[in-house]
Amino acid sequence: MSVNATETPASHSNSNSHQAWMYAHITTMLMAWIFCMPAALMLESRRPTGSFLAKCFFLLFDITGMVCGIAYRILAPDLYPGNAHQPLGWIVSLVAALWIVLSIIRSREAGNGKDGKMCDVSVMSTVNGDYLEHGRERNGAGSLELYGYQDRSCEQSLRGDEDDDRCDKDEDRRLMESPRTTEGWPSGLNAKILGCRIVQYIRLVLMATVLPLGFAAIVSGLAIWFGIFRSRHIFSGLAHCIKGGIFFFYGLLTFARYLGAFADVGWAWNVRPAHSTEHSRKGVVPSAEFTESFVICAYGASNVFLEHLNATRWTHVDLEHVSITVLFFGGGLLGMVLESSWVKRDSTSPPSNPLPALTILLLGAMMSMHHQSSHLSAALHAQWGTLLCGFAFARAATYILLHLSLVSAFPGKPFTEVVAAFCLVLGGLLMMLSAQDCVEAMDGFGLESMTVSAIGAGAVALVLAWEATVIGLRRCGSQSY
C-alpha cells in the first residue's frame, strides 16, 4: 500500500519551524555518541590523556546538543506529544556523565597508587606466560616456528597487548579489595568510594551499557524526527528495533573479535587461555559461543508476544512471530547447554558450537519467505533474511578453517568473520528499517529496496571502518606506554 507524504501525520522532519536548532541537536549528539564516546571507551586505561580528551569532547557535544534540543522544544510546536525520547535522552546522558566521573576518579587513584604506572608488568607477564605456555603444549614445540614467530619480540607484542587488558581488571580488583587513603587528588574519601566493590561493579556495568543506551536514544530520536511508531504501531517498531539492534551489536562484537579484542578472556578464535589463567580472574568468563547463545535465548524468552500486543485477534503472521521467538529460546538454550562444562569438557579447544549460526540461518531462511502486505516490505525482509543466512555460512566457513588449519598460540583472525560481521550489522540495520511504519514512510518518499540497502551498506562500511580505527588507536596506545 502506497502512502503519500502528504497523508502522513505532521512530523519534525517536514516542519519548517526553527529547524536550525534541530539540525544542531542532531549533529552534536551524533558527534558525541558515534565518535567521542567509543573513543573514550576504547582508550580507557590505555591512553589516559587521549581518553580524558575524548570524554571532555563528549561532554561538550552532549551538553551543547541538550541545550539545542531544549531550545527547539521551547520554540517549535510539539508534534510528537508524550514521546519517550526526551526522558530517555536525559537518562542516557546522566549514565554517561556518571561513568565519566567514576572513570576519571579511578584513573587518578590508580596513578597515585602506583606512581603513574597502570599495572604491574611482572605479574601480568606471568599470567600471559601461562597463556603462551598452554599454546606450546597444545601445538608442540615447533608450533611458533611454523607460523614464523621465531623472534621473541612477537611474544612481547602479544603479551603487551593482553597485559593492558588484564591490567585494567587487576586494578579493579585492587581497588575493590584494598580501599586506602592517598595524598593529593583524589582525597581519602574518593579512595574509599572507589574501593567499594559495589561502586566498581557499577562503573563496569555503566561502561558496558552506555553505548547500547546511546544507540537506543539515537533510534528513538530518529523515530520522533520522522514521526513514526505512533499508537499501536509502537509494538511493531519495538520488536524490529530490538531484534535489529541485537544483530547490529552482535555484528560489531564479531568484528571486534576478529580484530583481536577479548582474546584475554578466552574469545580468541583458535585457542583459549589455560585453565588456571581463567580462574585467576574475578570469576570464570563464559565463552563467546555461550554469550551468543545466552543473548539469543534471552531475546526469545522475553519477546514472545511483543508484536501481538497491538492486536486482539490472532493471525498467521502472529503465529510466525511467536514461532521465531520460540526458535530463539530453544536454539539459544541448546547452545548454552552445549557450552556447559558437563557437555564440553575440553574448555581449551577451538570454538565449534553451531547453534548460534544455525538458529540465525533458520531465521534468515524463514524471514525471506515471511508474508508481507507490500512489495517493498517483502523485499526488505528478503534482503536481511539473506544477509543472516550469509552470516551463518561465513561462520560455518570459520569453523571449517579452524579445523583444517594449524593451530597457533597467538589469537587467530579468520577472514570469514569479516563477512560474518558485515552481514550481521547490515542485516540488523535492514531489520529495523523493515518495520511497518518505516516501510510506509519509505514508500511515501518513493524509495526502493535497492536504494535503501545500498545506502545501508555504505553506512555499515563506514561504521566498521570507524570501529577498526578506534580499536587500532587502543592498540597503538598500548604500544606507546
TrEMBL record:
The chain crosses the membrane at residues 20-40, 52-75, 87-105, 204-228, 248-271, 283-302, 322-343, 355-372, 384-402, 414-433, 453-473. Residues 156-177 have a biased composition (Basic and acidic residues). InterPro entries: DUF2427, YTP1_C. Keywords: Membrane, Transmembrane, Transmembrane helix. Residues 13-106 form the DUF2427 domain. Residues 214-474 form the Protein YTP1-like C-terminal domain. It comes from the Eukaryota. The keyword Transmembrane helix applies. Residues 156-182 are annotated as: Disordered. PANTHER family: INTEGRAL MEMBRANE PROTEIN (AFU_ORTHOLOGUE AFUA_6G12730), INTEGRAL MEMBRANE PROTEIN (AFU_ORTHOLOGUE AFUA_6G12730)-RELATED. This is Integral membrane protein. It comes from Elasticomyces elasticus.
